[in-house]
Amino acid sequence: MKLIKINMTIIALLALFSCSQQQNSMNTPERVGELTVKSLMNDNIASFIENVMLREGDFKAVFKYAYEHGGEKFKRKLKGKTVEEAFKEEEESMKRTMESGRESWSKTRYKGVEKGVDWKNIKYKSAAPTQLREIAGDLKRADILVSFSSGTDNFFFKLDDCLSIPDIGWRCEGIRNFKKSE
Length: 182
Known about the structure:
By secondary structure, the chain is α+β, with helices and mostly antiparallel strands. The chain is built from six helices and five strands. The chain has helices at 2-25, 29-41, 45-51, 56-69, 71-78, 83-114; strands at residues 122-136, 139-150, 153-165, 169-171, 174-180. Helix 2 packs antiparallel against helix 3. Mean pLDDT is 82; it is low at 1-24.
């Protein structure tokens, strides 16, 4: 009887652990905001690039998903091209977008110093999507407004042109509109 209870407990714990791991692997707006603030606090652009920014594989996933779930409107935009052909045409633009995102992170750190942010002692407060728009099926687009504090001052910025990609979660192009709250 004890062996059955132990086995049931182990099974329950494994199921719980498995579910929590799946949830944590998906980037929510809150998680993306928190990861961005943490990357700024730790002066770790690599973490921002890895965990928050849109990457080449994400762009491919968006193209494929939009083609499969976007209906005739998306297929008309392709003008008879395959997803691969359309992706190839957009590749240079996507590379510029990724470079711009890296630059926006560095500019945000610099602007923060100018405004008196002590990056080592900031505290994440919140993140929420704004102007949420459905693109196709579960593929959504929004900006994510992120707030944090440094000492007694509050600040915010916008994670720009974020996409909620099925099976991946939220990814963003970069940081914009860094401001001190009045």
